[in-house]
Amino acid sequence: MVKGVKWDEFEGQLLSEGFVELGDFRIELTLDNTFMDVAYIPRIAVYSRGRDKWYVLRNPIKPGNKLDEGWENAVKVLREILTGSAEPDFNDPDLEREFLETLRRHVEP
Questions:
Q1: Taking the domains of the chain in order of start, what are their residue ranges?
Q2: Which of 4, 72, 95, 108 falls 20 to 30 Å from 23 in CA-CA distance?
């Protein structure tokens, strides 16, 4: 993705393709059923090329009544991070800072 992509384009690509390449990061929509529950919980997985490691964004995401609604709720969390109403939570302050800087450098709200 190029610098200065509009939020609508970023959101559209993430919802339609399930992932976005953004600077040093790959952001993916994924599912979690860690608790072996029937319901799957939407998650945002982030791959850092610089660290060669996957991370899961720990911010709470509402599951939704259907899968598409869960994905939309996950993307809303990214918008909250972009606009400053939420901070990214990876349990790693350096990664959180890098991710936020990259998101803000490449996506226009």
A1: 7-104
A2: 72
